[in-house]
Amino acid sequence: MFTGFIFATGIENSIPTINNGRTRMDEMEKCGHYKYWRKDFELVQQLGIKVLRYGPPLHLTWLGPDRYDWSFADDAMRDLRARNIVAIVDLCHFGVPDWIENFQNPDFPAQFARYARAFAQRYPWVQLYTPVNEMSICALFSALYGWWNEQLTTDRAFVTALKYIVKANILAMQEILRVRPDALFVQSESSEYYHAENPKAIGPAEIRNSRRFLSLDFNYGRRVDSEMYEYIMDNGMTRDEYHFFLNNNFKHHCIMGNDYYQTNEHHVSADGATRSAGEIFGYAVITHQYYNRYRLPVMHTETNLTQGPNGDEAVRWLRKEWANVLRVRNNGVPIVGFTWYSLTDQVDWDVALREDRGTVNPLGLFDLDRNIRPVGEAYRDLIRDWCEVLPTQSVCLQVPIALPLDYEDPNCNEGVDGNPPAPPVPRRENSDVATAAPKNTE
């Protein structure tokens, strides 16, 4: 059983398409993970990290309705389990297989839920999931900004994508819980804020500050703001679809993941145009806004910064974000974890994966040759210094996470004739996250 503060990293597994679906931006391939996956898992252990955001490539694993190729996933997941690394399994990260086409497909939610159930049956030792990563960003970039996948630019397309993406997330949670009743879900979502540049920009900024909550409002069964209700109804959502979200609430199984980068805050002009604002409020202030709305345990699920010409820019950002995490905890918010994303450098995120340039972005704890960066050394030291202190000397939410080897299942990766293996046999009981209360041990 693992109940300490969660220090995590992740393997970048974005797979959106661009060029009208002709080009797949597969970050696992670009970053060399298919070749170096064993080495990558070794690097996770070298840093003292016990939790990894990870998911097999959806487009190569999910071949069609109830058709799967588990070959890569079996090898990788078996190795993770042998290392006793807790996986927060990231099932869908910004893209879908070609046969689904894109997020305008109404068949996506039900089909994805079947995939999630099949995954949970095949790897029953997995307890933590992010079924769909950054649901709001996925819908925005695919259906409102015109960058990925369907590459549409209308409010109706955005609402359509968002309702199908969040419905897929909810149905996947439902199916996973049928296999693993103590499953926990870490909703990794971008935490945004829009600043009005002048009084005439207040209206457009307020609209965007309401829209930023839509994905989590739907996911957690919260009634949307009145202006957003009119917006979604005007753009194709039906009353039955809206009430589906109100009536299917699994928030007692959820940890709210907040992602924060320097690009998450925006200036808004009077005509509604936006531009990057850099860090103004910062992670602590914006996370309080989300926590006050949903009142759920929190995890800082993504951040990074380019190493930069001085070589210490990423290290200073790590320390700043960590100070924000401690500030949130000291203010009484049950924050349970922190993540530097990702383990290695990424490729083409400087243009948000909109172009296939092959530009390496020095954002990782390690470079693409698997050499540690200064921020990797700093994160390793931070974990060493703080991992034993936080659970005993601060406001702490004890989240009961079963380690992979806490489950005995000799066939957990060895389905017979393509069939999923038998359910796991727990060695010890686990309580639900809803029963875990903040514990003040100061």
TrEMBL record:
Protein species of origin: Zemynaea arenosa
Renumbered residue ranges of the record's region Disordered: 412-442
PANTHER family, alphabetized: ALPHA-L-IDURONIDASE, BETA-XYLOSIDASE-LIKE PROTEIN-RELATED
Biological process terms in GO annotation: carbohydrate metabolic process
Single Gene Ontology MF annotation: hydrolase activity, hydrolyzing O-glycosyl compounds
Keyword Thylakoid: no
Name this polypeptide is given: Glycosyl hydrolase family protein
Keyword annotations: Hydrolase
